[in-house]
Amino acid sequence: MWPKNDEERELLLTEEHCSEADLAQIWTVNEMAKGEHIIFAATGISDSPMLRGIRYQDQHCITESILMRARNRTVRRIEAHHDIRRKTVRMASTAEEAQL
Question: What is the pLDDT of residues 58-70, one digit of tens each?
Fold first, then answer.
């Protein structure tokens, strides 16, 4: 964990019951993800060397994702086409669905 400021650091140390040692810990991959039953998934929001970001085309947006499974050593790349006209978002203020 890397608190963004002193206030967030205090919050972690008091309310989240973290210690200074927890905040100083540098985790290795093997410590974060032990075993063979690991699945990693990511979807690109902005362009990166690993994944393209969201692209808009007419009434659709195109996303690119990657799915990795440790047990079988498989890597899947997924290109999804989303019909924006059918997508909704839940409004925090009213908890109702609204069209995009």
Answer: 999 999 999 999 9
d(C-alpha 12, C-alpha 24), whole Å = 12
pLDDT category at 31 given cuts 50, 70, 90 is: confident
Cα radius of gyration (the chain) = 19
Q: What is the 3-state secondary structure (H, E, C) of the chain?
A: CCCCCHHHHHHHHHCCCCCHHHHHCCCCHHHHCCCCCCEEEEECCCCCCCCCCCEEECCEEEEEEEEEECCCCEEEEEEEEEEHHHCEEECCCCCCEEEC
